[in-house]
Structures are given as structure tokens and as C-alpha cells.
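As a warm-up, study this chain.
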Amino acid sequence: MARSIVHMDMDTFFVSCERLINSKLNGLPLIIGGGDRGVVASCSYEARTFGVRSAMPIKMALRLCPQARVMKGDMELYSKLSHDVTQIIEEKAPIVEKASIDEFYLDITGMDRFHGCYQWTNELSQSITKEIGLPLSFALSVNKTVSKIGTGESKPTGKLEIPETMVKSFLNPLSIQKIPMVGDVTFQLLSRIGIRTIQTLSEMPAEVLQQMIGKNGIDIWKKANGIDNNPVEPYTERKSISTEHTFGQDTIDIQKLKSILVGMVEKLAFQLRSEEWLTSTVVIKIRYSNFDTETKQCRIPYTSADHTLTRNVTELFDKLYQRRMRLRLIGIRFSGLVRGTYQINMFEDTEEMLSLYQAMDRMKKRYGFDAVARCAGANLKTKNNNVS
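Now compare it with the structure written out below.
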């Protein structure tokens, strides 16, 4: 039996959130980003017509569209509305994967026995727009790849069904850039040998493609042929990453404790970015010398940035550690994870900050985590890292 997989994507999510609370922004070219030295985190379709794109420096965007209104953005608002949308989808869909703050995969295989799958999906999308007020696009097809490409082709506020018999005819004329995993480098490489459409790519021997672009070649070839057996992985807020540090000798040295916390955050934040997670919940754990254990947590806007997480962790630690008794253990846990990248923080950071994170992460991946570190946490040696 063919699967029924839905991909839902909130249209220009950050922009739509801002317009939801301020209707005067409707119809205006709008850029969500981090000031003059920052980059574009999101932009409206009105701005896109001038060539403005995500990750573009704000200065360049304003040269292309000088009449655009630039807003810093409100990640707390975006996180709240994302949770609201998630709750509606989880209440109605049997299997939900939250792929990022604003996109979802739903496996509704077999539901056509009770409803038409397209009709059911359409009714769900209408419920979201009615209850939350945000526009979205969706596509229904046989797997995640085709559905995701379909959503992109249906925007804005589009609704598309691609049955199994129409997958090839749908994919064939599209640019290879529409395939997930095909970035600029791969596109340029394939374009130089005349491969620009999905049909041409699908007819290429898979082994040759693998020799050209490496281990991802087979996966890209399969996607070009509409083949994707990856399951929709149920979304759960319980997924987390954590680390603990047990002292050889109990301590009350606040400066030492905070230095270690900085290093722990840096290590976990790097893990978040490497695995493309964003966290929305920070938990601090302390154990006193008499073995009393206390925890404290807070919800935060989705992030994977060291400096943002460090600020929240240290503030939480200050609130939790009140007894002035020696500590034998401290721990941090990041939970409420969703798929996403550091790009989500673009509206609060400068282009230089983004470049710094990217450069540090490249060095850590190439030479090991300890190759580069912030001074405050450079000497940290932790243990008991885990993912749950």
C-alpha cells in the first residue's frame, strides 16, 4: 500500500507572525533581521520580488529593496505560535514529525478508509489558519521528499496532491535545485556537465553520480527518482541532550562553577548545531555535598547559540544556587528539541557573529572539539554526556 505523507510549511513564518499582531504590516516589503550589520532571517514575498533572500546581509537587502521595513524579530512570539500550531497538529494527526520551527511531516497512511486524505489535510490546514491566524502550504504524496518539493512548488498558501502515478511527471521538469541535499556546490558541479533538470539527473547511472559527488550521490539519485523510504519520526518534547560534571572535591567557588558551566554549554551547543537541533527548554541540576539534589528549568525561544544559552544557564544557576553549601555535581539539560539550524538566530546576531560560529564549528569538526574554545570554558573536562 502506498504511503500518504503530508508536508506542511508555515508561509514566511516570521513575517506572518509579525503581521498577525500588526495588520499594518500587510502588503509591505518586510525584512526580519539583525540590524545594519546583521543578515536576513526571513522576508516577505513583497521583498523577495526585489531579489531579497534569507541569509543575505541586511545592507545588501536594503540596496535591492530600499523601501523595505526592517524588524529585529521576536523569537519568543515565534516560539509560542510554533507550539500552538504543533499542538493542533498533534491532536489530529496520528504520526507527526516536527522538522523545524515552522514545518511538519505527517504520516496519515490508511486514513483514506475513513476520510479522503487530501480532504482531511485540507480541513486540518483550514483549522490551523482559523484558530491561529497563520497561512500555510501543504503537499500530500507518497514520501517525504516528494511532499517537501511539492510544498515548495505550491507556495504561497498552496495545496497540492501528487499521487504515486504522477510523481515522475511532477518531478521531471523541475530544477535539480529543488531536491533536498542539492546545495550550490552540487548544483554548479552538475550544471557544468549539463545536468539541470531532475529528469536528466534521474536518468544518470547512480554509480557515476556517486563517483562525482561522493557518498550522497546514491541518495540524491533516489530522490530524483521519487524514492524515499525514510519514515516520519514521531515528534516528542521529551528528547534532550545533557551533560554533568562531578567534582573530585566539593566546591563553593562561584567563579569556578560558572566557568565550568560555560564550557558545558559550549559543548552541548556545538552538539546541537552539529546534529541540527534547536532547544526550547534549559534545565539546571545541582547536587550539594550532603547529596540533596535540586533542579530548575525555564522555557526559552528556540536556539542553539552558545552566548544565548550561556546567559540563560547562568541566570538559572544564580536563581537555583541559594544555600551557599559546597557542591559535588552540576548538570545541564537542553530539551524541547526541534530540528533546525543556527540560522534561526540570524535576527539577533551580526554577520560577524554568524561567521565566527561557522568558523569555530568547522575547526571543531575538522580538528576535534578542543581545537578551539571560549576562554571561560577552555579547561573543562566533562563526562557523562548523553542523548535521551
